[in-house]
Amino acid sequence: MRNFFSFIPIVLGFFLFIGCGNGEQTEEIPTIEFATDTIKMETLKCQMCVATVQQAVAKVEGVEGMRVDFDNKIGTVSYNAEITTLKEIEEAIAAAGYHANDTKRDETVYATLPDCCR
After folding, report:
1. What pTM did the predictor assign?
2. Facing residues of 76 across strands?
3. pLDDT at 58
4. What is the set of domains in the chain, with CATH numbers?
5. CB under 8 Å to 54, separation ≥6 — which residues?
6. Mean pLDDT, to the nearest integer, of 1-19?
7. How far is residue 26 from each of residues 16, 17, 23, 81, measured CA to CA in Å?
8. For 4, what's the count of Cα atoms within 13 Å in the CB-facing half-sphere?
9. In what order do the strands lie in the sheet with 74-80?
């Protein structure tokens, strides 16, 4: 009998918890639509280059991810266009020492890359 009475507050709490909501959602959760663009990166020489580019792009706020097709020397980047632009992503790649579409690499940074990347 004692166990039965200790169970009652749990059951009442459960029904109180469920009954407090009115079932209506008052605030709509915004959805984020990511833009996807392709970037030509003709100066990629090896997989270390790919890793360097991916690390540089990952630091750009709003970028969701980037896949690089090394054989064709192109990258596909997904990003929140409300936060960043394709130009900003290209500039991050250029700042890492690689051409990105028509944005030319930073030659000073390029000179410091490992030999396999030049």
Report:
1. 0.74
2. 38, 67
3. 96
4. 34-117 (3.30.70.100)
5. 66, 68
6. 58
7. 20, 18, 9, 27
8. 1
9. 34-40, 74-80, 63-69
